[in-house]
Write a structure and sequence with these properties.
Chain B: Its EC number is 7.1.1.9. Chain B: It catalyses: 4 Fe(II)-[cytochrome c] + O2 + 8 H(+)(in) = 4 Fe(III)-[cytochrome c] + 2 H2O + 4 H(+)(out). The complex is a heterodimer of chains A (611) and B (346). With 611 residues, chain A is mostly helical. In chain A, 65% of the residues lie in helices and 1% in strands. Chain B is built from eight helices and 14 strands. In chain B, a hairpin with a 2-residue loop joins β1 and β2. Classes of the chains: A mainly alpha (611), B alpha+beta (346). The interface between A and B is large, with 91 and 89 residues.
């Protein structure tokens, strides 16, 4: 046991070995933003190709690789890690905890995700990225030549392990680590929705793990689960993929719903309308999310009974989603709405997402789905819900929590330019795609032929994509130009929840004294019913903290080495990689590491400096 | 105000139906199946536009009425919720969804109904033709089991007849979509799927593969050609028992071309009852509108295609024929012969 602050002087080493949930959160954001940029570049390349008919900026094979990498990147390596970043940073603060339940696993989850993503991207330099779509339908994927799909299988397997670990960690954290008085029904909605999303991760990701394992055995070891000539069945893959894949979209959207449920009350200066209805709607969406996977497979020949059941079940999801929309509207009703950039994204979300929601109900109409399926109508729909929902949520979260995370507010002027350009570009890109699909344009086409009435709308769509790109550049400028505004304000938005009660920058132990929660929106309650200060639930005492450790990086790196061994059939690499991974796990198991304690006088000094 | 509410969905539909090419767009249905799906799309659209109007109206009212005005610092009343409202906005969506779900379930079963007894006991059967559609990377094979016909790329059907389709695949998953006539069903390896369609009017309808199937997925087009039942009978008879000129063409150039065909093509492609079945059947090649599924039918394009198939349709199985394999003279003869493969004219 030591009192020394086990912080390294080397910045790189510090970030490599950190187990602090705030730093891990920032790592997730940085990693997610990196892959988000890559996925964005891929999207723009595809839109340039589709700007005019019969263009050959990239070859058809390359286009298939681009669409595969774009989808895979945006879902697994951008949207989810960015959400994880905010969840990591914010949830412990919102529930009054000093860290997540398992700080070591938290770091491990990040490094698994990041290395898995990098592994996937190595395929670009080794003769071809995966080319069978992010859904990797067999037998196109199992027969795909080259190593691209091997990278897909192993990269996603490793990063999926990280996600699963992260999800379990959030579950345990939220169940066990809440401050006194923070009952489940006093939890902020962001924590609630992250809790439900983590449950979905816990049950959905194993299906993906199994699917990827089967595909790996098929590709690397000649198994025949999906080989029709040997009695295999290709539909198994589609079921496994969508049993994971459909909950996955709720894993993305529920935390975003949570973000809006924080941002809207803050900037409407009003308590969330129908809190308990919101909680139950979230739970119902999470539950129904597991009941509807086969609506991705209406045309695969399941028969009318299955199609009808899954159609009705899918439509049912519109009900709890509608409840949430109306509760947000009623939260705004009678409020004093401030049009900050964060709130603009929340307000832009409502109409954009509702448009994506109604096309979702249209898609759920199984008989009509035979026309919609696998066309640009579907492309339009899921970009409306994922950009209009998840990405808007991420931007709202970024502008909302940025001052807490980095000590400065992002420029509101640039932020508003960013918002409007992005909103217009987004609708311009994707609205016309509904019609393109119905006019006969299948999705995942490397180009389209002239004379089929598809030219004008594809051109409009590409211009919209350019506007979105310009918007992103403005966001980047805003992030760097705003650093001069650094003021370390503790509570910039007149916040309602516990994260605004801790000083900025947040001390590594978060709360000098564990807070006592007396109501929903505890900070708002104390501001208006109490003396504006959160009551402490414990006397000031020394704080036990976990040590930094390099083992998470080591464990993850070992799996990457082993993955290369699998991809290129090099047995020594497989063995070596597993020795690294299991060796590091062994060290972790036998080495006693009791962490360190922060003495009371340091906490007191921090407190005085904080004021 | 009332007028606007009525005009909105109508103008939307006008906007919709003005879009796209007639024989490709799902918004311009040319047969009963596509019409059924289009009316379901319209129904869902009307319900959804109603939802959008309600939400947008509340939304715009709220953000205009309750925006923060300069100098306003009041603290709004902290409302907890309202049970009545929660019940209202739970019940109404359920009713709206039922309005859509019930016709959808009925249509889903209608579209899956492959019976041809016309719904009447001891009644006459509905006129029908069976077609087995096999998808290949990246072309389509149409077999008419009752008529002993195999055709490639162009699916001839008689008008006003129920076409019962069985879908299969020889390699990866594809999907059979003729938007103007019917929504899609997938061609799944190892599984046979069924669907039906009808075309009341004659016409050439564009079909597309909608499941990512490889580099030339976007070029995997086909045609559904609806002709009157008499013409269809002629077509089917000639396809099953090909006229003599297919194997023994008139004119020396075409005869030479037949020689080239027998040397270089016949192991994969059939004309009449002679030839392999690895590539599309070419019995009626001279009547195609397009080459390789998408190139305009002319001799320059045909030569370009034969010379470099990978450039024009990457990843397909057909070899290219350079000058050494087929010299210029032989190529001209081959083109002449292929162009003579017609069974409907005369």
């Amino acid at each position: 046991m030591s009192y020394a602050k086990a912080q390294s002087k080397n910045v790189v080493w510090d970030w490599l070995t950190t187990v602090d949930h705030k730093k891990v959160g920032i790592l997730y954001l940085a990693g997610g933003a990196f892959f988000f940029a890559l996925g964005g570049i891929e999207a723009v390349l595809m839109r340039i190709q589709l700007m005019f008919p019969d263009m050959a900026i990239v070859q058809a094979q390359t286009f298939n690789e681009l669409l595969t990498m774009h989808g895979t990147t945006m879902i697994f390596l951008a949207a989810m890690p960015l959400l994880f970043g905010f969840m990591n940073f914010i949830i412990p603060l919102q529930i009054g905890a000093r860290d997540v339940a398992f700080p070591f696993l938290n770091a491990l989850g990040f490094w698994l995700f990041f290395f898995g993503g990098l592994l996937l991207y190595v395929s670009l330099f080794t003769g071809g990225a995966p080319d069978a779509g992010w859904t990797a339908y067999v037998p196109l994927s199992s027969n795909s030549p080259g190593q691209g799909l091997d990278y897909y299988v192993l990269g996603l397997q490793v990063s999926g392990l990280g996600t699963l670990i992260g999800g379990i960690n959030f579950l345990v954290t939220i169940i066990n680590m809440r401050a006194p008085g923070m009952s489940m029904m006093r939890m902020p909605l962001f924590t609630w929705s992250s809790f439900v999303a983590s449950m979905l991760i816990l049950f959905a990701f194993p299906a993906l793990t199994i699917g990827l394992l089967l595909l790996m055995l098929e590709r690397l070891f000649g198994a025949t689960y999906f080989a029709v000539d040997f009695g295999g069945n290709i539909i198994i893959w589609q079921h496994l993929f969508w049993i994971f894949g459909h909950p996955e979209v709720y894993i993305l959207i529920l935390p975003a719903f949570g973000i809006f449920s924080e941002v809207i009350p803050t900037f409407a200066k009003k308590r969330l309308f129908g809190y308990s209805a919101m909680v139950f709607a979230t739970l119902i969406i999470g539950f129904l999310g597991f009941m509807v996977w086969a609506h991705h497979m209406f045309t695969v020949g399941m028969g009318p009974v299955a199609n009808a059941i899954f159609a009705v079940a899918t439509m049912a999801i519109a009900v709890p989603t509608g409840i949430k929309i109306f509760n947000w509207l009623l939260t705004l009703w009678g409020g004093r709405i401030q049009f900050t950039t964060a709130n603009l994204f929340a307000l832009g979300f409502i109409p954009s997402f509702v448009m994506g929601g109604v096309t979702g109900v249209m898609l759920a109409t199984s008989a009509a789905n035979y026309q919609f399926h696998d066309t640009y109508f579907v492309v339009a729909h899921f970009h409306y819900v994922i950009i209009g929902g998840v990405v808007f949520g991420l931007f709202a979260a970024a502008f909302y929590w940025w001052p807490k995370m980095f000590g400065y507010r992002l420029s509101e002027t640039l932020g508003k330019w960013f918002f409007w350009l992005f909103l217009i570009g987004f609708h311009m890109t994707f609205f016309v795609q509904h019609f393109l699909g119905l006019m006969g344009m299948p999705r995942r086409v490397a180009s389209f032929l002239p004379g089929q009435g598809l030219d004008a709308m594809n051109f409009i769509s590409t211009i919209g994509a350019f506007l979105m790109s310009i918007a992103f550049i403005i966001l980047l400028i805003a992030i760097f130009a705003s650093t001069k505004n650094r003021d370390n304000v503790q509570d910039p938005w007149d916040g309602r929840t516990l994260e605004w009660t801790v000083p900025t920058p947040v001390p590594e132990y978060n709360f000098a004294q564990t807070p006592l929660v007396r109501d929903l929106d505890p900070y708002w309650y104390e501001k208006h019913e109490g003396d504006g200060k959160i009551k402490a639930a414990e006397p000031l005492g020394e704080i036990h903290m976990p040590n930094a450790t390099v083992l998470p990086v080591t464990i993850s790196a070992g799996l990457i080495v082993a993955s290369f061994g699998f991809i290129y059939h090099v047995l020594p690499l497989i063995i070596g990689g597993f020795i690294i991974t299991f060796g590091a796990m062994f060290v972790r198991s036998i080495k006693e590491d009791h962490g360190y304690h922060i003495p009371v006088d340091v906490i007191k000094r921090d407190k005085e400096e904080g004021k | 105000m009332k007028y606007i509410w009525r005009l909105l969905p109508i103008s939307f539909i006008l906007l919709l139906s003005g879009c796209g090419v007639e024989n490709l767009s799902a918004l311009d249905p040319q047969g009963p199946v596509a019409e059924m799906q289009y009316s379901l799309i319209q129904l869902s659209l009307y319900i959804m536009i109603f939802v959008l109007v309600v939400v947008f109206a509340i939304y715009i009212f709220v953000i205009v009425r309750f925006r923060e005005r300069p100098g306003d610092t009041h603290i709004p009343k902290q409302v907890h919720g309202n049970r009545t409202l929660e019940i209202i906005w739970t019940t109404i969506p359920i009713l709206l969804l039922l309005m859509l779900a019930i016709p959808n379930v009925m249509d889903t079963f209608t579209l899956a109904d492959m019976s041809v007894d016309g719904g009447v006991e001891d009644g006459e059967e509905i006129d029908h033709v069976r077609v087995e559609v096999t998808a290949h990377q990246f072309w389509w094979e149409f077999e008419y089991p009752d008529l002993d016909v195999v055709a490639g790329q162009d699916m001839y059907i008689p008008t006003d007849t129920r076409i019962l389709i069985e879908l299969q695949s020889s390699d990866v998953q594809h999907s059979f979509w003729v938007p103007a006539l019917a929504g899609k069903q997938d061609n799944v390896p190892g599984i046979t799927n069924e669907m039906w369609l009808e075309a009341p009017e004659e016409g050439v309808f564009m079909g597309k593969c909608t499941e990512l199937c490889g580099p030339s997925h976007w070029l995997m087009d086909f045609k559904v050609i609806a002709v009157d039942p008499d013409t269809f009978d002629t077509w089917a008879t000639n396809m099953a028992e090909p006229p003599a000129h297919l194997a023994e063409p008139e004119g020396q150039v075409a005869v030479d071309g037949r020689g080239v065909f027998e040397e270089s093509c016949i192991s994969c492609h059939a004309v009449g009852d002679e030839g392999g079945n690895i590539g599309p059947d070419l019995t009626n090649f001279g009547e195609r509108e397009v080459i390789a599924g998408y190139l305009d039918y002319d001799m320059d394009n045909l030569e370009a295609w034969l010379r470099d198939t990978q450039d024009l349709k990457p990843g397909n199985e057909m070899p290219s024929f350079n000058e050494e394999a087929i010299n210029a003279e032989e190529m001209d003869a081959l083109l002449e012969y292929l162009d003579s493969l017609k069974i409907l004219e005369e």
